[in-house]
Write a structure and sequence with these properties.
14 helices; 286 residues; 81% helix; 3 domains; mainly alpha
Length: 286
């Protein structure tokens, strides 16, 4: 139970900014569009901006998640494989926290362009912190608990969704945009503190960083002092050998796992290009 609670708490805190701000932007649409228009009235546009420009700015504000995450998806593997899960998590959460502050300041100072850029940048870093948290949780806990932990972690999305939907209504904080977006700051701060407290994934420390001492400390941190370290090391090494054999039998060399080679394969192989195209089309329909 403590392990499942740990995974759920980490997912809740790390993903709060992403789910909360996305939902809030949809529910508080009228208030955000008024904020965009009024900001230009204060700059001397007595009649405000035209409807087409307002729609474009609103669309960018709402769909910045796709732009930011699309760009970030090309760097996620680099951060997690080169810097480690914990370091990537800290970098992503720190950036999200700072950009959330920029969101609030931009609203308070009537700067919609800065607000839009900040949101896109925030979503960029959620694609670094989110996958890092997922990999850290999966690699740090026993196999038997991975399924339940990820299941309960997925339920945190519903909690955040309900929280954002209620807070963004006109009767709560819908007409107070700075306070509405500032509500995410405590959760990002708690996520950062928790990330600093955590240790690196034992799997990453042993198999990628090749640091047995660090992996041992990590196992003791996540599994307790009673864990059989040598047996856990043998299990992880055995899993790595199976993955190597599986990749070899599939015709992919383990050395071909770099980001650029994977992108090259996606572009050069016809069936992979079709899969990417179908995925992009599905995202647009959604």
């Amino acid at each position: 139970m403590p392990t499942v609670l740990f995974a759920s708490t980490l997912h809740f805190l790390v993903n709060f900014y992403l789910y909360y701000t996305t939902t809030v932007a949809n529910v508080a649409e009228v208030s955000i569009r008024q904020f965009i228009n009024n900001s230009y009235v204060m700059r001397g546009y007595s009649a405000g901006i035209d409807l087409a420009t307002e729609r474009w700015l609103w669309t960018l504000c709402l769909n910045g998640i796709f732009l930011g995450q699309a760009i970030s998806s090309t760097t996620t593997a680099f951060f997690n494989e080169r810097l480690g899960r914990r370091c990537s998590l800290i970098i992503g959460i720190t950036a999200v926290l700072l950009l959330n502050v920029v969101d609030v300041i931009a609203i308070a100072t009537h700067a919609p362009i800065i607000f839009i850029i900040s949101r896109c940048s925030g979503y960029f870093f959620t694609m670094i912190s989110g996958p890092a948290a997922n990999m850290l949780v999966v690699e740090a806990m026993p196999k038997a608990l991975r399924g339940p932990a990820m299941f309960f972690s997925g339920l945190t999305y519903n909690i955040i969704l309900i929280t954002a939907s209620v807070c963004a209504t006109d009767t709560v904080l819908g007409h107070h945009l700075p306070m509405l977006f500032a509500l995410g700051l405590p959760f990002s701060l708690l996520a950062l503190l928790m990330s600093v407290w955590l240790k690196e994934s034992p799997t990453y420390a042993l198999l990628t960083a090749r640091d047995e001492k660090r992996a041992k400390h990590s196992l003791h941190f996540y599994h307790g002092r009673i864990v059989d370290v040598e047996e856990m090391f043998k299990t992880m090494l055995r899993e790595e050998e199976l993955n190597v054999k599986r990749n070899s039998s599939g015709g992919t060399k383990i050395s071909d796992s770099s980001l650029f080679i994977q992108i090259k394969e996606l572009l050069m192989k016809r069936h992979l290009r079709k899969a990417v195209l179908c995925s992009l089309c599905a995202m647009q329909v959604k």
